[in-house]
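Cross-check.
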Amino acid sequence: MNLSYILPFYQKAELFRLMLPVNDCYRQPDVEVVCVLDDPAEENDVLGIVKSNPDIKFRVIVNDWKHDWRPPCIPYNVGIRHALAGHVVLTDPESAIVLPRNDHLLQLVTEDFRCCYGGITWIGDDFKLGDPAALIRQKIMVTEATCSPWSLLIGLLVAPKLALERICGFDERRTGYGWDDTDLRIRLCRLGYRWCVAGTVKIFHAMHDNAPHRVESNEPMSPNIMLQDQKESWGKAFCRVAWDWNKPV
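Predicted model, tokenized:
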């Protein structure tokens, strides 16, 4: 197992269904896709999608506690705990990852194990208007032909699982919207890892609004590399596995 893709869900099942056919990277033989459901109401919908795609190695982990929206720190950490691969890819259910070749992410992470990578993201709300694959091809053609700038939002992080374990994952105390990924990257860099943006990795992110009440976070960056107060508990908020490719039904 080379890569574990980790996808945190909170009311994103339909966007996941829309974008899944474009994510050819999920269908590679040496990767798994860990879906972490922070809203139990989505379980049946996500399991229906999983069962319709038997060529993808899915693991589905469900939080049975119903709650309002919160940042994906906790579900990401749960996914990191359950990942089997040595490198994890933190992304979103509503994203499509376009790579120059199937083994491109693996090549990035094996060339220099001290590097963590992000991609170049384009965000839009027109995926719902038609075929996502056709829209993505059109966006790539237009941006490459006109040299239009891409948004340098991250949308994806590739890192050694060991590095994320050493910093105790995301800060699970965070409650506001945004900056949780920045906090993680800062702590990785403090640990000695280098942060690189891979311009060859393009992420297409469908707009959504499943948390209209959320407000921009003003929480400070975590002062410590390792979060001592969650050293033992991080990634253990919930653990029910509803589907596991490694344990066929």
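The radius of gyration is 17 Å. Residues 132-146 form the longest helix (15 residues). Passed to J.P. for a second look.
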